[in-house]
Amino acid sequence: MDYIKFLYTVIFFGSFSVINGSYSQSKKTVDSISYGNSSIDVSDRLTTHLIFKSDINYIDIGSAAFSVDKIKNIVKIKCTDLAKWNVTDRTNLTVVTKDGFYYSLWVDYSENPIVKTYIYKPEDSFKLNSFDVLNKENCNSLLSRTSNFFREYSNHKMKYQVNGIFYDEDKIIVRLKVENESNIHFTTDSIRFVLTTKKKFNLFKSLKKQTAIQYNEKRAAFVCNNTKDINAKSDNTFLFEFNRFVPTDSEVLEINIAENNSGGRRGKIVLKIKDFLLKY
User: Fold this and answer.
1) For 147-175, b where at least 16 C-beta lie within 10 A, e where not — what string?
2) Taking residues 180-185, what's their average pLDDT?
3) What angle do CA 64, 52, 222 make, to 5 degrees?
4) Is residue 201 over pLDDT 90?
């Protein structure tokens, strides 16, 4: 029997009658099937399946200890190198379907997970307005494109560099390189882009005259070359695509890179409005 039909028959339709064909936004679990959960459990002994409403266009997982594969609208995932994984950690899984829905999920290790099938619908995601901007061809082109900007922060044998800010119609693409010069593996906990006001709290200024500090986190619509793991003596270059924005004169964009709970290495790059006004 065709593998797709087999998966649908055994995994999907076999469970469909259990819930009368209805999904739930309350993230409920029925007979080892979960609906709309934001985190999944994955084993090295069993295969976990994710089922989406439409076919999958892009998939990426943050750790090489896990293997993922897609067949039409089904993702299968398994921990294939447990020796490289700290079972108390977690990584991330990104899925973009062909109809432009973006799913971001946490992946946790479990030796014997109760739930082995996860079903998702568009309400569990957010819609991308222009998924086609950073396709594979454009990613490769932008990764190798001549740098038009350079800003670096380094400490603890880690280098964090913004070495490109590019525009494509109504999109802005930031190229970020993270280089690990140490002998210790680096796993990112998060890479956050936050617009914030320049002015900080002044102890010598009256509260009435203080201006509240504003924070506006910018979420990338798409990420190329995404990973959470950067091995010793290696590097990775990311591309983050956003709907076009430019800080005001009173704002800066802070790019914060943090190591996960296994370490305390941190990096921060600050960009001002003049940094966005490039010639090309």
Assistant:
1) eebeeebeeeebebbbbbbbeeeebbbbb
2) 94
3) 55
4) no
> By mean pLDDT, which of 77-91, 143-157, 176-190, 197-211 is the weakest?
197-211
Residue 200 is given by DSSP the state -
At a CB cut-off of 8 Å and minimum separation 6, what does 277 contact?
A: 246
Close Cβ partners of 234 (under 8 Å, ≥ 6 residues apart): 179, 180
Look-up: residue for tokens 């409403």? 53
263: phi then psi, degrees, rounded to nearest 5: -160, 170
Q: What is the pLDDT of residue 205?
A: 55
Poorest-pLDDT segment among 21-25, 204-208, 253-257: 21-25
Distance CA 267, CA 258 (A): 7
Task: Report whether pLDDT(4) > 70.
Answer: no
Note the pLDDT of residue 51.
96
Dist. CA 27–CA 63, nearest whole Å: 25
Alpha-carbon span 218 to 201, nearest angstrom? 23
Q: Under 8 Å CB-to-CB from 141, ≥6 apart: which residues?
A: none
Contact residues for 29 (Cβ-Cβ < 8 A; gap 6+): 35, 37, 114, 115
Q: 207: which DSSP letter?
A: G
Are 168 and 239 contacting, i.e. CB atoms less than 8 angstroms apart? no
Return d(Cα 200, Cα 241) in angstroms, integer.
29
